[in-house]
C-alpha cells in the first residue's frame, strides 16, 4: 500500500503544522514574559513561518494568544487523564492533582508558566483541567464524598488554591514543593468536607507511576 498521501491531505497537514507552530511560538512568549505586545511579524519569525500565513489561521493576536492558552490548558488536563486514569475516588483525584501540579512546575515549566499567567481567567472554562475538576467535584458531591455546595463555587475555591500553589512554586523555588502541595491538598479536602484524619491520609497516598 502506498504511503504517499493525496495533495489535499499533504496541504492540510502542512496547514495544521503552521497553525501549531504559531501556537507554540505564542505559548513560549506567554511563558517567558506574558507580554502579548509582540508584533505579528516577530511571532511569525519565531514560529519560522511566513508573515502572510498568520492570517490564514488567526484574525488577530488576541485570537492566537487565546488559542495558545487553551492549547496549554488542554495539554495540562490530558496529562492528568493519563496519570490518574485508574483513580476513582474524587478526593484522591483532587489531592493528586495538587501534587502533580507542583511537580509539573519542574517537569513542564513552559506549560505551568502559561497557567500561572493566564489560568485565572479560565477557571470556569469548558476546556483543560477546569471541566475535569468540575466533573470530579460533582461526582464527589453526588456520592456524599464532598459537602454539597454550588459546584461553581467549589471550583472557584479549588482553582484559586491551585493557581496559588503554582505561583508559590515559581516565586519560592527554595520551598519544598511536594510538602506544600501535600499540605494544600489536605486543606482543600477538609474544606470540601472530608474528615481531617481521612483528608490527611488521602493527601499522602502514593501517586500513580509515570507513564
TrEMBL record:
Keywords: DNA-binding
Pfam family, one: TetR_N
The entry's DNA-binding region: 39-58
Keyword Flavoprotein attributed: no
Location of the HTH tetR-type domain: 16-76
Source superkingdom: Bacteria
Keyword DNA-binding tagged: yes
InterPro entries: Homeodomain-like_sf, HTH-type_TetR-like_transc_reg, HTH_TetR, Tet_transcr_reg_TetR-rel_C_sf, TetR_C_40
Record's protein name: TetR family transcriptional regulator
Protein's organism: Streptomyces djakartensis
Amino acid at each position: 500500500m502506498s504511503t504517499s498521501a493525496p495533495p489535499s491531505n499533504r496541504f492540510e497537514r502542512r496547514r495544521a503544522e503552521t497553525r501549531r507552530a504559531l501556537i507554540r511560538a505564542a505559548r513560549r512568549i506567554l511563558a517567558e514574559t506574558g507580554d502579548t505586545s509582540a508584533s505579528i511579524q516577530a511571532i511569525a519569525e519565531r514560529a519560522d513561518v511566513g508573515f502572510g500565513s498568520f492570517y490564514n489561521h488567526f484574525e488577530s493576536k488576541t485570537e492566537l494568544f487565546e488559542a495558545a492558552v487553551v492549547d496549554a490548558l488542554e495539554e495540562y488536563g490530558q496529562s492528568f487523564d493519563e496519570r490518574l486514569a485508574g483513580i476513582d475516588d474524587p478526593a484522591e483525584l483532587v489531592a493528586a492533582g495538587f501534587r502533580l501540579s507542583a511537580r509539573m512546575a519542574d517537569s513542564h515549566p513552559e506549560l505551568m508558566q502559561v497557567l500561572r499567567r493566564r489560568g485565572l481567567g479560565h477557571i470556569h472554562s469548558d476546556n483543560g483541567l477546569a471541566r475535569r475538576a468540575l466533573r470530579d467535584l460533582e461526582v464527589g458531591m453526588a456520592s456524599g464524598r464532598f459537602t454539597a455546595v454550588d459546584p461553581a463555587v467549589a471550583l472557584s475555591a479549588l482553582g484559586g488554591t491551585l493557581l496559588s500553589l503554582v505561583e508559590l512554586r515559581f516565586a519560592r523555588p527554595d520551598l519544598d514543593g511536594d510538602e506544600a502541595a501535600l499540605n494544600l491538598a489536605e486543606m482543600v479536602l477538609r474544606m470540601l468536607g472530608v474528615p481531617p484524619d481521612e483528608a490527611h491520609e488521602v493527601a499522602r497516598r502514593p501517586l500513580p507511576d509515570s507513564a
